[in-house]
């Protein structure tokens, strides 16, 4: 590819994607609202831009072959805060992609688009939306937007329903963990698969306790390597018995299924913010 665009480049996941993506195109344009993202990789250029500004996104995306869209508020928040970056921002990315003839958008969706399903129900990529938060609702909007832009305007999309891409610090993550190495592989397969149309795939490693089914997206060639079971003995010894009355333990969305709308889900989680520094 000549040009690849990465939104959300200043975020934790974006920090791990920048280097491998810079090797997949002549030019990687990384973008975020932050003033900077540290030392740039060879072939990488940084542009500060607001997802909620269509003109700004159009300028960033012009000439791109594909867009890897990871930019957004990454937690539950009031609708008014989610609206700009997560909903309007998604529209702006796809509309700019259409206007400039971009072939495909690879989108960081989330398990929270279907977070109210019971964890004991192993769900596939074709289940109807069942969001657990306003944040999850915005992911549903973007997935439906992606399908519409494929069916009406021919812009391909791969929506990555990421489960837990962070260090394993609790029992839920024994099933939901996505290692950074598997994240990179997943995004690479979403980019280099010859044709995708509209596709949903779960972002999860090869965990023994994986609660979702990716068989319908097997054609992408995503073959995760890591398994959270290596952490099981330590994690389970540190936690007490489960509570079947707790939605955080009984739903796919974890703590997001238990918090009130507009209240942070991440505040209930022990996330290690191990951003890759350059």
UniProtKB/TrEMBL annotation:
<dbReference type="InterPro" id="IPR036291">
    <property type="entry name" value="NAD(P)-bd_dom_sf"/>
</dbReference>
<keyword id="KW-0560">Oxidoreductase</keyword>
<comment type="similarity">
    <text>Belongs to the NAD(P)-dependent epimerase/dehydratase family.</text>
</comment>
<protein>
    <submittedName>
        <fullName>3-beta hydroxysteroid dehydrogenase/isomerase</fullName>
    </submittedName>
</protein>
<dbReference type="GO" id="GO:0016491">
    <property type="term" value="F:oxidoreductase activity"/>
</dbReference>
<keyword id="KW-0413">Isomerase</keyword>
<feature type="domain" description="NAD-dependent epimerase/dehydratase">
    <location>
        <begin position="5"/>
        <end position="162"/>
    </location>
</feature>
<dbReference type="Pfam" id="PF01370">
    <property type="entry name" value="Epimerase"/>
</dbReference>
<dbReference type="GO" id="GO:0016853">
    <property type="term" value="F:isomerase activity"/>
</dbReference>
<keyword id="KW-0520">NAD</keyword>
<dbReference type="InterPro" id="IPR001509">
    <property type="entry name" value="Epimerase_deHydtase"/>
</dbReference>
């Amino acid at each position: 590819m000549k040009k690849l665009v990465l939104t959300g480049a200043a975020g934790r996941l974006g920090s791990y994607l920048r280097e491998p993506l810079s090797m997949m195109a002549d030019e990687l344009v990384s973008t975020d609202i932050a003033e900077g993202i540290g030392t740039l990789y060879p072939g990488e250029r940084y542009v500060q831009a607001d997802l909620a500004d269509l003109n700004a996104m159009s300028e960033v995306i012009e000439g791109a072959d594909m867009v890897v869209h990871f930019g957004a508020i990454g937690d539950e928040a009031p609708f008014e805060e989610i609206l700009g970056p997560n909903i309007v921002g998604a529209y702006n990315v796809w509309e700019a992609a259409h206007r400039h003839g971009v072939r495909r958008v690879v989108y960081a969706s989330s398990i929270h688009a279907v977070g109210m399903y019971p964890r004991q129900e192993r769900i596939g990529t074709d289940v109807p939306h069942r969001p657990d938060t306003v944040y999850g609702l915005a992911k549903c909007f973007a997935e439906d937007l992606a399908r519409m832009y494929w069916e009406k305007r021919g812009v391909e999309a791969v929506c990555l329903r990421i489960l837990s891409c962070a260090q394993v610090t609790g029992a839920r993550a024994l099933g939901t963990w996505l290692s950074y190495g598997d994240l990179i592989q997943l995004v690479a397969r979403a980019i280099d698969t010859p044709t995708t149309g509209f596709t949903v795939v779960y972002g999860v490693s090869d965990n023994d306790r994986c609660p979702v089914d990716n068989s319908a997206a097997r054609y992408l060639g995503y073959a995760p390597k890591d398994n959270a079971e290596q952490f099981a003995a330590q994690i389970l010894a540190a936690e007490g018995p489960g509570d079947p009355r707790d939605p955080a333990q009984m739903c796919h969305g974890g703590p997001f299924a238990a918090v009130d709308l507009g209240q942070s889900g991440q505040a209930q989680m022990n996330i290690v913010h191990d951003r890759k520094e350059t």
